[in-house]
Design goal:
Helix content is 76%, strand content 0%. With 206 residues, the protein is an all-alpha fold.
Amino acid sequence: MPFDLWLTFVLASVLISLAPGAGMVNTLSNGIAYGVRHSLPSILGLQLGLIAQFLIVGIGLGAVLASSESAFQVIKWLGVVYLAWLGWSKWRQPAIALRLQADAADLAYGRRFWQSALINLTNPKATVFLAALLPQFIDPERSQLEQIGILTATGVTVDVLVMTGYAWLAAQAAVWLGSRHHQRQLNRLTGSLFLIAAGLMAIYTR
């Protein structure tokens, strides 16, 4: 892959990762509640979902979602329901002490990892977007598997760095959000953002 083309994809990946979305909300929520280090499982979960999205597009299912309205709607509404459930759960979550120094046993790493993976996996907008984006960076005359591997590794690396940055910023804000009153407000804010993300996905059309 030509270096200048790869740099263009790096820039596109940065812009995509920085854009507000369910993954960003999830990372901010975890960063505030758990700090940067303990947010890594959720960040890695997002990457599993992202890798799956790249593979889905790579094997052609992205084109199916782009052309099949019924398939698109099924995946879309699964994502809507899941994000709405996350938002409602976060809204109703009781105030807790911020656990920036919590024991590993209390952090539910596995649950947050798979929860985050599902956030990216059930986002058909990302699939359709990648289906439109990736062909612009793939040379049909060269090994597609190798090129998809390079693009996937690049996209995941960029997203890890951006999400880690979001988690760090959120952890700094946590210093000012130690009271239970602020915790309740924070839970309702992040819950509302998840519900907004669900609403935006619900009205998304191609």
